[in-house]
Design brief:
Helix content: 10-25%
Structural class: alpha+beta
Strand order of the largest sheet: 1-11-10-9-8-7
Number of helices: 3
Largest sheet: 6 strands, mixed
Strand content: 25-35%
Number of strands: 11
Distance between the termini: 37 Å
Shape: globular
Radius of gyration: 15 Å
Length: about 140
Amino acid sequence: MNQSSLELRWRVRTGGGGRTERRSCFLVDGVSLYDQLRVGDQVTPLGCWLPDSEREYIQQLLAASGRVPLYVCAECGDLGCGAITALVERTPDGFVLRDFAFENNYDASITDAESYRAAGPFAFNRTEYWRVLNERAISLSAS
């Protein structure tokens, strides 16, 4: 499997008309994951919520303990509104994001993996993956 690159670059969801302005990110191989997955009105859990919430989310991405939400409701971040998730796996060389799906935390029958079957998998070098996510965590401490 080829190694992919991960970057965090802000994309702004404009506010107004009952919508809250939010920032979102994730570039894989220089291309927005938002665009690759055709996300719609969802945002990443980075850049939108309180620093403690972001730190917890970064830990989920680094722990590689299973399914992790990549894009959540832009207004509340609640998994009950539905989220695009991925299975994050730790490998000897790094991390892999694969098996993308739309799901929620209360009804498995609503899960849609078929729409995302063509996405990924994305393999990331361990050092680079950690560097990108830890830089974000450090920036939260500085703000």
